[in-house]
Amino acid sequence: MATIFTAWQGVLTRMAKAAQAAGRSPESVHLLAVGKTFPAESIRELHGCGQRAFGENYVQELTTKARELADLPGLAWHFIGPLQSNKTRHVAEIAAWVHTVDRLKIAERLAAQRPESLPPLNVCIQVNVSGEASKSGVEPKAASALAHAMAALPRLRLRGLMCIPEPTGDDERLRAQFATLAALKQQLEREGLVLDTLSMGMSADLDLAIREGATIVRVGTALFGARTYNSNQDQGIPG
Ligand SMILES: *Cc1c(COP(=O)(O)O)cnc(C)c1O
User: Fold this and answer.
1) Chain mean position to CA 76
2) Average pLDDT across the chain, whole number
3) How sure is the predictor about 2, in pLDDT bands with cuts at 50, 70 and 90?
């Protein structure tokens, strides 16, 4: 407990410092704890510290952990992995948020499958800000059409945009990609959409993301430690 509590406090302090350095209020940035590959017990421990928002990348892992942790009050699941259309139902039934919608078909299925008994599903559009061909996410120039179509769907609440920048140690490239996402959100707001979320920044680059306007940072390694993948799981970087 002491270890994960210390790591959690460390991340929150880092976030607050980055917010202050950017002239932003620390309350404007939220921590999403990414538990992929870590056991439900680790999430239970961090929930015991006071963390409430947890991110998962794989539908199977989300489903299993949600069942194992159903007794925890106030826990909100955020789905942050690539989502195939045949897997939307579990996510629509379990998650409070989906960060990775990048086509209308997925949004339509989530809207149709979101149970009436639950509040609307919060959704973000994943944008490919790096231009890498292999990357998930809508192209920046196609984001406006998708956003307006999604904003019209029932049972969903479009909250904002999400990105995973290219893996690079080059801070200036990273900063430019975060700035691209922030500028795109402003453009959509000028077009009349009401958005409050920029989901960007991970363990290595959350400070830079907060400087560029992140409102949710998605942090795994800095909380739980390094990940090891077993052969049953997708390898490599999702997205
Ligand atoms: C794994 C993952 C994270 C967390 O990454 P860390 O570098 O471990 O903090 C954040 N976002 C997405 C989409 C991820 O897949």
Assistant:
1) 12
2) 95
3) low
Check if 202 has its Cβ closer than 6 Å to any atom of ligand 1. Answer: yes
DSSP state of 120: P
Backbone angles phi, psi at 156, to 5 degrees: -120, 150
User: CATH number for the domain including 63?
Assistant: 3.20.20.10
Model confidence at 238, in pLDDT bands (50, 70, 90)?
Answer: very low
Which run of H or E residues covers position 30?
A: strand 30-34
Q: Report how far ligand 1's centroid is from the alpha carbon of 117 (Å).
A: 30
Residue 196 tokens read as 């409050």
CA of 82 from ligand 1 middle (Å) equals 12
The answer on pLDDT for 236 being more than 90 is: no
pLDDT of residue 221 exceeding 60, the answer is: yes
Q: Ligand 1 pocket, 203 CB below 6 A?
A: yes
What is the residue whose two structure tokens read 């509590």?
A: 5
Q: Does a structural domain hold residue 27?
A: yes
238, part of any domain = no
CA of 133 from ligand 1 middle (Å) equals 20
Distance separating alpha carbons of residues 114 and 15, to the nearest angstrom: 33
